[in-house]
Amino acid sequence: MDLAYLWFFIVGVLFVGYFVLDGFDFGVGMSLPFLGKDEVSRRQVINTIGPVWDLNETWVIVAGACLFAAFPDWYATLFSGFYLPLLIILLALIVRGVSFEYRHQRDDIRWKRRFDGMITIGSFLPALLWGVAVGNIVQGVPIDADKNFTGTLFTLLNPYGLWVGVTTMLLFWLHGVHFVGLKTDGQVHHDAQALGKKLAIPAVVFAAGTVVWTIFLAAGREAPLLWAVIACGIIAAVALLASIAANWADRDGQAFAAGAVAIVFAVLTLWLALFPYVMPSSTDDAYSLTIQNASSTPITLQIMSWAALIFLPLVLLYQGWTYWVFRKRVTRSIIEKAELAGAH
């Protein structure tokens, strides 16, 4: 296989990993106002992702670095044209990260509530805007002969882009709710399951709409991997329904695992619908960025391939070890004991 095509799929896998892992972080953050009835329960919710949220975010850094190195023209067009939404995502991630660290620095309920609100906003905006960005990449945007994006922010706020954005927001939210249900006990655990049931119908409606719409887009441009797009869409739908059914059956682990599978195949549906383009032009197909005309030199891709072969397994092992260490539930009694010890 040509290394450019290999790296198209490697970058896709990195974004899949990011959306699955940081996706439930976003979902937990968006759930905070609905599950945190008091300070103990709010700390329960936040502590479910406390040890791993920053590790999960490294996936997007690696994905961005690989995109820059493997497809410099794609990177340049994407980051110049999508500058404002990507800047909003970056600022939201910064605000969220700062809030995790600062909310416990003062024993003042108003202080903590402000940072809790920033966690929620900093989780909602990326969950929405990542979907808008990916939706526009798949659908195509105005690009000229010099590979420059010629639209505006309002160009990106089109029906398909917004629909995909709402879909990712709902899927991440549901994924995060299932993670809270898996990692907590008591009232927070039961509230998370109840919230998951309320999110189920809108998540299914928007996810189904995204899959069908994306298949029609891929069929319209005669995508060579249309069969794979359809297969991934079906698997994503089945996994999402299985996740919802598991939540109703009080099987938190299965609900979370099936939700992860649903996100994996939902992102693959979008990614495979893009192939062999990396950024289609809605102005003229001749101006579209493809895997071949946007990739780096063969020697660059060879060096990157050897680096990925060496370091990627190490990253996966470290992340797996981290999740194993922090695998236990965050119980209410643990938080209460920690508060009591802090008071003394």
Automatic annotation (TrEMBL):
<feature type="transmembrane region" description="Helical">
    <location>
        <begin position="6"/>
        <end position="32"/>
    </location>
</feature>
<feature type="transmembrane region" description="Helical">
    <location>
        <begin position="119"/>
        <end position="140"/>
    </location>
</feature>
<feature type="transmembrane region" description="Helical">
    <location>
        <begin position="160"/>
        <end position="179"/>
    </location>
</feature>
<dbReference type="GO" id="GO:0046872">
    <property type="term" value="F:metal ion binding"/>
</dbReference>
<feature type="transmembrane region" description="Helical">
    <location>
        <begin position="299"/>
        <end position="326"/>
    </location>
</feature>
<dbReference type="InterPro" id="IPR003317">
    <property type="entry name" value="Cyt-d_oxidase_su2"/>
</dbReference>
<feature type="transmembrane region" description="Helical">
    <location>
        <begin position="255"/>
        <end position="279"/>
    </location>
</feature>
<dbReference type="GO" id="GO:0019646">
    <property type="term" value="P:aerobic electron transport chain"/>
</dbReference>
<keyword id="KW-0349">Heme</keyword>
<protein>
    <submittedName>
        <fullName>Cytochrome c oxidase assembly protein</fullName>
    </submittedName>
</protein>
<keyword id="KW-0249">Electron transport</keyword>
<keyword id="KW-0408">Iron</keyword>
<feature type="transmembrane region" description="Helical">
    <location>
        <begin position="77"/>
        <end position="98"/>
    </location>
</feature>
<dbReference type="GO" id="GO:0009055">
    <property type="term" value="F:electron transfer activity"/>
</dbReference>
<keyword id="KW-1003">Cell membrane</keyword>
<dbReference type="GO" id="GO:0005886">
    <property type="term" value="C:plasma membrane"/>
</dbReference>
<feature type="transmembrane region" description="Helical">
    <location>
        <begin position="225"/>
        <end position="248"/>
    </location>
</feature>
<keyword id="KW-0479">Metal-binding</keyword>
<comment type="similarity">
    <text>Belongs to the cytochrome ubiquinol oxidase subunit 2 family.</text>
</comment>
<dbReference type="GO" id="GO:0070069">
    <property type="term" value="C:cytochrome complex"/>
</dbReference>
<keyword id="KW-0813">Transport</keyword>
<keyword id="KW-0812">Transmembrane</keyword>
<keyword id="KW-0472">Membrane</keyword>
<dbReference type="Pfam" id="PF02322">
    <property type="entry name" value="Cyt_bd_oxida_II"/>
</dbReference>
<feature type="transmembrane region" description="Helical">
    <location>
        <begin position="199"/>
        <end position="219"/>
    </location>
</feature>
<keyword id="KW-1133">Transmembrane helix</keyword>
<dbReference type="GO" id="GO:0016682">
    <property type="term" value="F:oxidoreductase activity, acting on diphenols and related substances as donors, oxygen as acceptor"/>
</dbReference>
